[in-house]
Every structure is written in C-alpha cells, then in structure tokens.
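Need tokens for this chain, all 397 residues.
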Amino acid sequence: MPTNPAALLILALLFTRPITPGIAADGRTNGLPATPALDYPGGIPSGRVAGNAFAGNRLDLPPGGNGRTRYEKRGKPSADRLKQENAVLLQSIRDQEAALKKSGRINYFLTAGLAIAAGLVVFLSQRHYGRQRVNRLLMTNQTIQHQNEALRATNERLEKSEQHLLQTNATKDKFFSIISHDLKGPLNSLTGFLQILDIQVDAFSPEELKAFAKDTNKSVKNLLDLLDNLLLWSRSQTGTIEYAPQPLNLSEIVAGNLNLMHVAAQKKDIRLQADPNGTLPVYADQNMLNLVLRNLISNAIKFTPSGGSVVVGASDQDGYVEVSVRDSGIGMSPSTLEHLFRLDTYHTTSGTNAEKGNGLGLILCKEFVEKNGGILRVESTEGQGTTFRFTVPVAGA
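Here are the structure tokens for all 397 residues:
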C-alpha cells in the first residue's frame, strides 16, 4: 500500500470516479468495471454495468439485480426504443448512486479523498516551508561566514598594528638608549679633555698634548660616525632615504671600501684581503651597498686582535652574488648572536682595543640588504672568528 500522499490521492480519484457507461458511435454501450472499493459489507455487490450490444428490439433485464444489464439485439432498434434503453441505463446508474448514498459510501470516499488531498496540501506546504527554512539557514550561514571573514581580517589588521606599535616603541627605546649611552660617552670624554687643557695646558709636555689630541680626535670621530648612523637610521625609519638601484661592479665597490679601512687596519696590524671568486655585476643601490660593506669591515677590524686578518669574498649563488666578510677575531657567544639585529634590547661588546659599539650599524646593514632584495646572516664561534654573509641580486637576472 503506497504511503506517499500524492499516490494516495491518485488512487482515491481512480476508485471514486462515476460509473458511467460510454455510448459508442455504432450504438454499443461499453461497460465500465465497477469500483472494487465499493465491495463493502452492507452495500451492493460489485460487477459490471455493461451491455455487449443491443440484441434487438427488446430489452432483457437480468432478474435478481446481479449487477449486470444485458441488451440483446433482436433487430434494428427504433428511435423510441433507443430512448427507452438510454432511460433504463440512466435509471440503473441513478439506482446504484442512490444505493451508494444510502450506504454512506460516497460520503466515505469523498471524506477520504478530501483527507488525502488535505494531507497532500499539508505535505506540500511543509515541504515548501522546509525549503524556505533551509534557504534561510543557508543565507544565515553565509552571513556568518562573511562576518567571520571580516572579523578575521580585522584581527589580522590589529595584529599588524600591534606589531607596528611594538616596533615603533622598540625604535624609540633604541634611540633613547643610543643617546644616553653612546652619545653621552664621547661627549663626556671630549668635554673632560678640553677642561683639562683649559686649566693645565702649561703643565703638559708636547708628547702628552699629542696624546690628548689623539684621544680627542678618536672621540670626535666616534661621535660623528654615530651621528651619521643615527641620521641614516632615522631616514630609513621614516622612508625618506633614497633608493636608486643600478648595475654595479662589485670588485670595484669592495676595493674602494677596503682602501677606506686601510688606515684603521694598519693601526692594529690587521691584513685586509679581497678574494672575489666572481666578477658578475650586481644590481643594488650604491650608497646602501657601500654602507653595508663599511660597517661589516669596520666591525671585523674592531673585533680582530693585532696580527689578524679580514677577508672579503664573493661567489655566484643562482641569480645572486653572496658577499662574505670573514675575520679571525674573537668571535661571538650564543647570547651575543641572539641579540644581533634586535631593537628591543641594548647589547654592546667592546672591541679588542676597547672600541665601543652600539649595534646600530648592523641593524642598518640588515635593513639595507633587505631593501636591495638580499638576506644578511652571520656565523660565529667564540674565539674562532666571525663571518657575515649577505646576498645581492645579479644585474640583469
């Protein structure tokens, strides 16, 4: 038995149709099968309201109401006879309809059909409501997804803002630490020397005055170097420093910076050496590349004892040139390596001749190397020297 409401409605319509014989063009009346669903106790029996043909001029009605009406042809019927036969058929149908009404079966089937139709309407309504609800849920889910994406984007912006704020605060702290430690030291030394000379200039021999002048010159030079780095750093932080990359001859750049550092290396009896393995032109900003090389070579000299060596080399690295500055100096401890290139901590190490440093030069080196599309890294073992390596794009790569 089907349970689908649509199928039930179709069955109800099939089994409750009127029992109406058809009159064919040849005068035959085709019997229709009686509704099997009418075969209930207390009702008329099922059967056929049919006639094989008009058998003649007389109409034979079966006795006992066995459910079949037969017309037997005895000749060609007249118009009056046809009217009489049609009236008999219609009366038979009316009698069966009256019997159905009397037994309550028509009401039963109408009620059942209406119930099934109502069930179908409810089913279709619930189905329509269900679809609407699913659509609303899908729209709600889509809205929630959009809100989550917007919230995620907002969180990312907040995280970036927080990182930028932390970086800004670290820059500010680094700036003040440099002013308090590195600027104050050279200025105090310079002020002290000048006060001594002002008060007791006649008490010193020419040799002592020479020594004072030498120390004063060193303090002024350190102060100028620090101020230069501070100015460059401030320009890099504000984005006002000019970036103008161009093809450069690396060998000439290295040779020029080694010549600038020759006097400082000679004072400590340190041998400077260029060992470039390749002569490929590089693509970089000349001022930034010079600053990186000067700072790295200066650091190597600062932390290399007398009699040591500093070697600047270069090698091709798949579209890049890797430049290395290797020294035979005192090296760095793991804790010192950890604090390199960091703005949020103040860490300084004295050179082999008590040279002072603030780490700002290395921070500038890292920023300028990355600005030119390269990477700066360091390898060091305490007591065995240090090697800084950075990459520069090959011109035309």
